[in-house]
Each structure stands twice: as C-alpha cells, then as structure tokens.
Amino acid sequence: MGNGIAHVFARAGFPVLLYDIQQSFLDRGLAAIEKNLAREVAKSKLTPAESVVALSRIIPTLDREALAPATLLVEAATEQFPIKSELFRALDKILPEEAILASNTSSISITKLAAQTQRPDKVIGMHFFNPVPVMALVEVIRGLQTSQDTYDRVHALALQLGKTPVEVNDAPGFVSNRVLMPMINEAVFSVMEGVATPAAIDQVFQLGMAHPMGPLALADFIGLDVCLDILRVLHEGLGDPKYRPCPLLVRMVDAGWLGRKSGRGFYRY
C-alpha cells in the first residue's frame, strides 16, 4: 500500500520521500504510481501536466538517513510487529523531534508501537484502504499515549488528502478488521468444510448482501498472508477462539498461494 499512500500525498501537493529496502520494490512502486496517475488522467480527474508534477514530487530512496528532513512518517511495512517495531526504533532516532510517526497498520497496537520510541505522544495510526487513491476512508487510531495535538494534525492532514478520517481507539484490528476478518475467516471455514465453493460463497454476498466483492475475492485482493497475520493478531490480542485462523488459510499461505499477488489464492490470476 505504500505506493498508494505516496500517490495521494504527492497528488495533494506534498513532497514525498519513498523509502524501501530494495531497488526492485521502489521500481515496482513507482511504476504503480505512474500507472494509477495515468488512469486518473484518462478519467479527467487530473490533467496530464498535474500528473507529471505529482510524480515529480516523489523521491525514491534506499537510504533511511535520507528521511531525516521528514515531518511525518507513514509506515506501511509487512503486518508483523517485529518488523514495524524495528523501523519505529530506528526512525525515531533519525527524524526530527517534532515529526509524527504514523503507522498504516491494519491490526497492530499503536500503543505498543509508540512504546518503542522516545516520542510516544507523537505516534498514531493512519490506516488507509486499498486502492488508496480511490478509497475515501482513513481510520485514525489513537494509542494510549497519543496527544490531542498529534490527533488534530493527522485528522486535518487526512482532510487535505481528500479523505474522510474516522477516529478509532486502539484495539486489535481496530474497527475495520475486527469486523471484516472474522467474516473472511468464516468464509474460508465454509470452503474447508465443503459448505460451498469460493465462487458460490462470493455470489451469495454479492447478490444477497450487495457487496461489490465477495469475502474470498476480497481476501485474494488483500493478500492471504496479510489476512492470516491480522487474524493471528486478533486471536492473540483478544484471546477469543472465534478469531482462530482457519487451517485451510494457514495451509494456503504455507503453499505460497497468497492471492492476486502470487497468481493463485481462492482463484487463479
């Protein structure tokens, strides 16, 4: 999601430093941004000139130290606490004292991430939704230590991006994934138990409940590994067996069937 977040900031007029750990990841991200800007031009949401200027605002880098001038960090690393916590500890030492450290995490505790830093009052959740340039919602998550000033600044910033910020307190999965992931998990159980095929389950939700995408097609879009990581956070954080990941989901992730990004999940791509 990092490329989508960079896209909306650049489109809104902000200079962006886009950091990743491999050049191939940066190249892929920039290609996605360029493609999505072209799509907006085709739909007359941007002029060709505006697209060129937006893209020029994004500076890719493999050097963490290059992030030193940033006044806001939006982290969008893999949904695993050890990876995110290492990033927050490192970047806390690099960014200026007044900088806000935001995480795009979809389930991990903002309070725990804040405790990894020397500025816990300036740590907050800024959870965007895929595809970021299209989806209006941003969950703005307060950790226990998050100051009112940090919240107010991030809320105002989300509005500048053309998004609708919704305030949520820190809890496993927040609102979106605490409700969504059990539904996806139950759909996977239904496949495993032979209740219906993935296509049939998705059709029930699309035709019977007016969902634009069924839960299993959505899981493939999100990434089955991401769904599994979030369910594990919910299971561990809330201690309720109803969040236990379906064994079929675990096996599919073990097999490398991660959904759209791997070419195979509940469907083939």
Characteristics:
269 residues, alpha/beta, Rossmann fold, N-(1-d-carboxylethyl)-l-norvaline Dehydrogenase, domain 2, 3 domains, five-stranded mixed sheet, two-stranded parallel ribbon, 11 helices, 48% helix, 13% strand
User: Over all CA atoms, what is the radius of gyration?
Assistant: 19 Å
Order of helices and strands: HEHHEEHEHEEHEHHHHH
Spatial separation of the terminal alpha carbons: 20 Å
What percent of the residues sit in helical stretches (DSSP H or I)? 40-55%
| CATH topology description of the largest domain | N-(1-d-carboxylethyl)-l-norvaline Dehydrogenase, domain 2
Estimated structural class:
alpha/beta
Q: How many E strands? A: 7
What is the architecture of the largest domain at the second tier of CATH? Orthogonal Bundle
Keywords: Oxidoreductase
Domain 3-hydroxyacyl-CoA dehydrogenase C-terminal: 173-269
Family: Belongs to the 3-hydroxyacyl-CoA dehydrogenase family.
Domain 3-hydroxyacyl-CoA dehydrogenase NAD binding: 1-170
